UniProtKB/TrEMBL annotation:
<feature type="domain" description="Methylamine utilisation protein MauE">
    <location>
        <begin position="2"/>
        <end position="47"/>
    </location>
</feature>
<feature type="transmembrane region" description="Helical">
    <location>
        <begin position="6"/>
        <end position="26"/>
    </location>
</feature>
<keyword id="KW-0812">Transmembrane</keyword>
<dbReference type="GO" id="GO:0030416">
    <property type="term" value="P:methylamine metabolic process"/>
</dbReference>
<feature type="transmembrane region" description="Helical">
    <location>
        <begin position="33"/>
        <end position="52"/>
    </location>
</feature>
<dbReference type="InterPro" id="IPR009908">
    <property type="entry name" value="Methylamine_util_MauE"/>
</dbReference>
<protein>
    <submittedName>
        <fullName>Thiosulfate dehydrogenase [quinone] large subunit</fullName>
    </submittedName>
</protein>
<dbReference type="Pfam" id="PF07291">
    <property type="entry name" value="MauE"/>
</dbReference>
<feature type="transmembrane region" description="Helical">
    <location>
        <begin position="58"/>
        <end position="75"/>
    </location>
</feature>
<keyword id="KW-0472">Membrane</keyword>
<keyword id="KW-1133">Transmembrane helix</keyword>
<dbReference type="GO" id="GO:0016020">
    <property type="term" value="C:membrane"/>
</dbReference>
Length: 83
């Protein structure tokens, strides 16, 4: 079970993190690190959904994580080598 003292701060910072990561990906700022941050955030969300047994949410989160992984693979294979 997730400690309750972590839930409230995480719930406040989650939309800000999602917005920042999405914005960084859209404008192409530090794309590799934004993808790493997105995958880390998705891992935390999947862990939280598993811990409360919210199986319906996990499907959408895994689809998003797969999409981010595909972007990371594409970026590492064809992306800018200067970054």
């Amino acid at each position: 079970m997730i400690p309750t003292f972590l839930l409230m701060p995480f719930s406040y910072i989650l939309p800000i993190l999602e917005f920042m990561i999405g914005l960084w990906l859209l404008i192409g700022y530090q794309s590799r690190w934004a993808l790493y941050a997105g995958l880390t955030l998705m891992s935390v969300l999947i862990f939280g959904s598993c811990s409360i047994e919210n199986w319906n949410a996990i499907e959408a989160q895994l689809i998003h994580a797969t999409y981010l992984f595909g972007l990371l693979w594409f970026f590492q294979k064809y992306g800018d080598k200067a970054e």
